[in-house]
Specification:
232 residues, mainly beta, Protocatechuate 3,4-Dioxygenase, subunit A, 3 helices, six-stranded mixed sheet, 8% helix, 29% strand
Length: 232
């Protein structure tokens, strides 16, 4: 499987109907207000950024489906290291929470396969959307994604506010996290070579700004967090 940086835009009419009319916003990245513990450090760990700073957009890739699957648990029984993914939307000027925004995520399973395509055409595993609460947050229950041809492990994300798409990007893990995951089944059963962050052509563009802050261990599962700001 490959991601294509030049994919045409796709309509999102159902998302607009769901969320209503509103202002278009520009996506930014922020440091999370309070993390559960220290995250990975080093050259590919999350940077320490004071306040809210602009985060580059990322490619949508070829595997997006406008499914409107409103759910917190997106695993659908797929095996893998458990992951709680917490995403917070905030206003850039104040870093105050955005209530009622929508966060849509999708990613590959441990074997590098996406639902809705090829042999999994009729499945919708590892896809879901949630509306942010009063704290601007959503939390998904999922698994750590696997890698695939020329791509490191990553999670696709879209943000919508007031019925308009405000951000498209990709979220990444530090090499420390992915290296630990590869030693756990079913990831360890794979025999194909793994593409790491340094050799992922899309990570090289702006991935350092989109690395998740991760706590816990591969044996018990992870909590991954990131805060995305928007300019109103």
């Amino acid at each position: 499987m490959r991601d294509n940086a030049s994919d045409p835009e796709k309509p999102h009419s159902r998302r607009a109907v769901l969320l209503g009319m509103g202002l278009g916003l520009t996506a930014l990245g922020c440091t999370a207000p309070e993390q559960a513990g220290p995250g990975p450090s080093g050259p590919d760990g999350p940077s320490t950024r004071p306040g809210c700073v602009l985060t580059p957009e990322g490619t949508e890739g070829p595997y997006y489906l406008d499914t409107d699957l409103h759910r917190a648990d997106i695993t659908d029984g797929r095996p893998g290291v458990p992951l709680r993914l917490r995403i917070t939307l905030v206003a850039a000027a104040s870093c105050g929470p955005i209530h009622g925004g929508a966060v849509d995520i999708w990613h590959a399973d441990a074997g590098g396969r996406y639902s809705g395509f090829e042999n999994d055409r009729d499945s919708r595993f590892l896809r879901g959307v949630q509306v942010t609460d009063a704290a601007g947050a959503v939390e998904f229950t999922t698994i750590v994604p696997g890698w695939y041809d020329n791509r490191t492990a990553h999670i696709h994300v879209k943000a919508f506010v007031g019925g308009r798409e405000t951000h498209t990007g990709q979220l990444y893990f530090s090499e420390d996290v992915i290296s630990a995951v590869t030693r756990v089944r079913p990831y360890s059963d794979r025999t194909d070579p793994r593409t790491d962050n340094a050799n992922d052509f899309l990570f090289g563009r702006s991935g350092d700004n989109s690395i998740l802050t991760v706590t816990a261990t591969a044996a018990s599962g992870y909590l991954a967090q990131i805060t995305l700001g928007v300019r109103v």
